[in-house]
């Protein structure tokens, strides 16, 4: 697929078929992940690729609990009260579906990063580019995915379940599966609203 | 360009020509950026696109100072002592070139994210996917780039120079320009070394 067709039609797909993903396809997705940059080319990343049924079911249960916690966060609680056909309402309905079915996705990828001491904002600069490569490569191969982080509400249990050692942070849990709905341009603010010329607040001509 | 040709040949390009980047090309790069995911689809991102000569020169001077600070960090100090033809030695030579010439890149993009309170690791999940889209889209269009974060050693000065308001974090400074050297597969550990099956430490068959 053409690069710009991929990057402009990658969107969160939260309704997934349970059909398995062939090894060769998964391998190509993970190869894209490791081509990403990381600070000082340290490559402190690790990816736990979960296909075992019982492990997925347990992660699904933990994720459902995490969703319950998220609904206590004001931003999401407000979104859950939005009309069902509003953008916020649709997002919450889709995210709730995922919360109830995460463990049924045929593959879950937990992206991890080694962190000396407390991780910071820029620790993310060494792992989320690789996560984005996973989402894009999946889309290029017709596989739905989304970037989730709420497993961190049950981080200790997730780490214990998967044997994540000390000094390693979990950064994203990515469900992968063939999509029940279509890819397409995601709902986003236009460039003109978010890009500035030379200084904050100055309009970018032509954007 | 084919998606996998882009994603597997995007690598840090730190030696850039000063030739300008056409507006239409820049526009396509920024459009890729805003297609990225963000937590709750909040899109709390902003991008300051710097082409003004004096502003680039001042950012270049601040970046050079930041480089000096980085060389006090043990990991990078050790890398700077590596043989010039070793991977670490080559990386440092390339990064030093960038430190001395950042302000000569025709475009610098400062990626920012709104953060309520102190940013965390997962704050990065809402901006570094967009940053990765910038790097990939640039590569698809034949433009070199790299992800840098060391401007944060001079964060207050950078924010003042560009008028970044309170409650907004700077996350990456990305130089863009036509490359002096070739694109190609970046030096990375293979998937088999960094991906596990179902549980930390368990080999992923076929990886």
Fraction in helix of chain A: 25-40%
Name the poorly predicted regions of chain A. Answer: none
In which order are the strands of the major sheet of chain A placed? 1-2-4-3
The CATH architecture of chain A comes to 3-Layer(aba) Sandwich
> For the record, what is the CATH homologous superfamily label of chain A?
NADH Oxidase
Which structural class matches the secondary elements of chain A?
alpha+beta
| Count of the domains of chain A | 1
Gyration radius of chain A (Cα, Å) is 18 Å
Mean pLDDT of chain A: 96
Number of DSSP E strands of chain A: 5
Blueprint of the fold:
The structure is a homodimer of 207-residue chains.
Chain A: H1 3-7, H2 23-33, E1 45-50, H3 53-70, H4 74-80, H5 87-101, E2 107-114, H6 128-140, E3 144-145, H7 155-162, E4 168-177, H8 191-194, E5 195-197
Antiparallel strand pairs in A: 1-2, 2-4, 3-4
């Amino acid at each position: 697929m053409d690069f710009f067709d991929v990057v402009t039609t990658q969107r969160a797909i939260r309704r997934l078929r349970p059909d398995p993903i062939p090894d060769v396809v998964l391998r190509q997705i993970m190869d894209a992940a490791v081509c990403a940059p990381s600070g000082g080319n340290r490559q402190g990343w690790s990816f736990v690729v979960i296909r075992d049924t019982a492990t997925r079911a347990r992660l699904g249960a933990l994720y459902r609990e995490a969703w319950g916690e998220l609904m206590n966060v004001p931003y999401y609680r407000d979104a859950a009260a939005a009309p069902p056909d509003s953008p916020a309402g649709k997002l919450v309905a889709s995210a709730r579906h995922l919360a109830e079915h995460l463990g049924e996705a045929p593959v879950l990828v937990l992206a991890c990063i080694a962190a000396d001491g407390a991780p910071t904002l820029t620790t993310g600069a060494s792992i989320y580019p690789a996560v984005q490569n996973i989402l894009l490569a999946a889309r290029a191969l017709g596989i739905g995915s989304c970037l989730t982080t709420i497993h961190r509400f049950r981080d200790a249990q997730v780490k214990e379940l998967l044997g994540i050692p000390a000094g390693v942070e979990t950064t994203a849990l990515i469900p992968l599966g063939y999509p029940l709905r279509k890819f397409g341009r995601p709902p986003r603010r236009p460039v003109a609203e978010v890009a500035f010329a030379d200084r904050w607040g100055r309009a970018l001509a032509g954007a």
